[in-house]
Design goal:
The complex is a heterodimer of chains A (394) and B (227).
Chain A: H1 3-13, H2 15-53, E1 57-61, H3 68-74, E2 82-83, H4 84-91, E3 96-110, E4 117-125, H5 127-133, E5 139-141, E6 151-155, H6 156-162, E7 179-184, E8 195-198, H7 199-205, E9 211-212, E10 214-219, H8 225-233, E11 238-242, H9 243-286, H10 288-296, H11 301-329, H12 331-341, H13 355-381, H14 385-391
Parallel strand pairs in A: 4-8, 6-7
Antiparallel strand pairs in A: 1-10, 1-11, 2-9, 3-4, 3-10, 5-7, 6-8
Helix pairs in contact in A: 1-11, 2-9, 2-11, 2-13, 9-13, 10-14, 11-13
Chain B: E1 5-16, E2 19-31, E3 36-40, H1 47-54, E4 62-67, E5 70-71, H2 77-87, E6 88-91, H3 103-113, H4 120-129, H5 145-157, E7 163-167, H6 175-190, E8 194-198, H7 202-205, E9 210-215, E10 218-224
Parallel strand pairs in B: 3-8, 3-9, 6-7, 7-8
Antiparallel strand pairs in B: 1-2, 1-4, 4-5, 9-10
Helix pairs in contact in B: 3-5, 5-6
The chains are: A alpha+beta (394), B alpha/beta (227).
Chain lengths: 394, 227
């Protein structure tokens, strides 16, 4: 027998109470672990995603609201336009590897199933340049070429929703009778819900000949981004947004949601800590006489304090282990919940389960036990044996 | 004066609010090594208070106490713990066994506090000494009152103390079982241990070498017995 087995046996004496305290700690640790893993996963995935876009700078029409720039990667509609001259001016800047024009437009089309008018987003793109920007694109069927007319690519999500297949034709709306030559395989991002047509076709359908809404710029050397964006700013019609700024905007929005969650966690942990302290103090009070007897048979104050502390750490460590396992097992559920709360979610998995994080959660649970156990341990160790035996409640 | 327990002019005053209660008044108490001593007296006469002071569970308000040659006055709590561990075994009326520990583990408990390891042989020895060799794995709730008190006596014996202090050890037992516990005490005494036993039971008290009578916190008499 050692102090740990003694502590464990003491805890088993009041199984219900111990179990509830352990569960309280477990829930707090689950929330803490989930949020920390989501936090690091979110930043990692967002970085990865923005980097994989291959776009360093976006040029949008001047006067466009700043936050709207982030709409570009969401498929928002910008009601102003740039011209081919702007594109040429951008391309003439030294250090630009790729400047890809896009015309993004909203249109209304009747839903195949419900017959209701549904808003859709279409991108007019230069296919080769777009594929250079998005090398992960793969297609069922084929890509169109820039010179083709009345052809279209659709995202997998949209195709599934509206029963569109390769070879079928769009039944209504401004793109009526456009042939679907390819369906983009699922990318996990907004592209799954979009229509893509050759840029000239989009300009023709919407009567926006020569007009574009966005120029996506990839630079040769990322250290030149600030110089190039400063030069682009000098073009009269253009407002420049770097991906760093877009990420900043997203991170700010996500930051507010995270702060809220952190507050919830802090409150959960504080409640849990007080719960543990309360349970221990109750248990210490109930066992005053027992501690007196232990002192009579040779225990020192330190021994009693150590035993109470061991019991606390036992509770919080068990809670830590259960909480961590629950967080790992339930990470998908929690991720789904958090995705719903965040303004923008990267397409990869947001949960990052590193051994360091598991270690941190377990060490944190032990630290929680030590913090919560110190006062009850001190209180019990200070009892004089006679006082304890005489005043004990049983 | 020689002796394993030597108390002189012991006074113990308890304060309850403004009220002062004198539990012990100038008590002189002497026990030689290997002696079996009973303390009797009516309720409130100071028997338990005296036993607690003798066992260093409580400190006297004034007076001196020497245990096994060591003067206890002015000792720190940690020194008293060590003195108790090395010299004294306690037996209580209510047994005070840990309900989640088996008989064997209850007996082992003081060894845990003394940091003694590899104790299996010693525990088996003590279980045999108290006649519970076949009951070691039982929890207290599975034992009879007499068996529980035997476990408590085993717990007091495990550190091989020179002195056993027992506070009404048969107070919760029937007369047959009480007799057997006293038999065990006499056996321990025969092995050379010093015993001081507080009891209400005059018949059992007479089985000791010496019987002290306490009344109103004072020694009212000391009778030598035919042991």
């Amino acid at each position: 027998m050692n102090f740990l087995t003694l502590a464990a046996k003491n805890l088993l004496r009041r199984r219900g109470r111990t179990l509830l305290t352990v569960l309280g700690v477990a829930i707090a640790i689950t929330v803490l672990f989930s949020l920390l893993s989501l936090n690091s996963g979110y930043q990692k995935e967002l970085n990865k995603e923005v980097n994989s876009l291959g776009v360093h700078i976006l040029a949008v029409p001047k006067g466009c609201p700043y936050e709207a720039a982030s709409l570009v990667i969401h498929g928002g509609v910008i009601p102003k336009y740039l011209t081919a001259t702007d594109l040429d001016n951008v391309r003439s800047i030294e250090g630009i590897e790729l400047a890809v024009p896009m015309l993004m437009h909203q249109f209304i089309r009747k839903d195949n199933k419900t017959g209701q008018d549904v808003p859709h987003i279409v991108f007019g793109i230069k296919i080769d340049e777009e594929r250079e920007l998005k090398p992960w694109w793969t297609v069922e069927g084929r890509y169109f070429t820039d010179n083709e007319t009345r052809v279209m690519l659709v995202g997998r999500g949209l195709a599934d929703k509206e029963n569109l297949t390769v070879g079928s034709k769009i039944p209504s709306g401004p793109f009526k009778d456009f042939a679907i030559v390819g369906i983009l395989n699922r990318t996990g991002d907004q592209d799954d819900q979009f229509h893509f047509v050759p840029l000239t076709e989009a300009q023709r359908v919407f009567n926006k000949e020569g007009k574009i809404t966005t120029i996506a710029v990839k630079v040769r050397d990322v250290s030149q981004i600030s110089r190039i964006s400063a030069e682009m700013e000098r073009i009269p019609d253009i407002q420049v947004v770097t991906m760093t700024q877009i990420m900043g905007t997203i991170m700010n929005l996500a930051g507010s949601a995270r702060s809220l969650l952190l507050t919830v966690i802090a409150i959960a942990l504080i409640i849990s800590a007080f719960g543990i302290i309360n349970t221990l103090l109750m248990s210490v009070n109930e066992r005053t006489r027992e501690f007196g007897v232990m002192k009579a048979i040779g225990a020192s104050g330190l021994d009693i304090g150590k035993m109470v502390l061991a019991e606390t750490v036992f509770i919080t460590f068990s809670g830590g282990v259960i909480g961590t396992i629950a967080a790992v097992v339930g990470s998908r559920v929690i991720e789904g919940f958090v995705r719903g709360m965040l303004p923008y979610s990267p397409r990869g998995t947001m949960v990052s389960l590193s051994p360091e994080l598991i270690g941190f959660a377990l060490v944190f649970s032990i630290a929680l036990g030590i913090v919560c156990g110190i006062y009850p341990a001190f209180k019990s160790s200070r009892l004089t044996p006679m006082e304890a035996i005489r005043s004990g409640v049983e | 004066m020689s002796g394993i327990i030597v108390a002189e002019n012991l006074c113990k005053v308890y304060r309850r609010g403004r009220e002062e209660i004198s539990a012990l008044k100038n008590v002189d108490f002497h026990v030689d090594e290997g002696e079996f001593v009973s303390i009797i007296g009516p309720s409130g006469s100071g028997k338990t208070a005296l036993l607690n002071v003798l066992g260093c569970l409580d400190t006297p308000t004034s007076g001196t106490l020497r245990l096994n040659g060591t003067e206890t006055r002015g000792m720190k709590e940690s020194e008293l713990v060590r003195l108790r561990r090395q010299n004294i075994g306690f037996v209580f009326q209510q047994f005070y066994l840990m309900p989640t520990l088996t008989a064997r583990e209850n007996i082992e408990l003081p060894l845990l506090f003394s940091r003694k390891t590899d104790n299996k042989k010693r525990i088996d020895e003590v279980l045999q000494m108290v006649g519970l060799s076949d009951r070691g794995d039982h929890l207290p709730e599975q034992l009879s009152g007499g068996e529980m008190q035997r476990v408590a006596i085993g717990r007091a014996l495990i550190n091989d103390p020179k002195i056993i202090l027992a506070d009404e050890p048969t107070g919760n037992l029937d007369s047959g079982t009480s007799g057997k516990i006293y038999e065990l005490f006499r056996k321990l005494n025969d092995q050379g241990r010093t015993l001081v036993v507080v009891t209400h039971n005059l018949e059992l008290a007479r089985q000791a070498h010496k019987m002290y009578t306490l009344r109103d916190g004072r020694i009212a008499g000391c009778e030598e017995m035919d042991y």
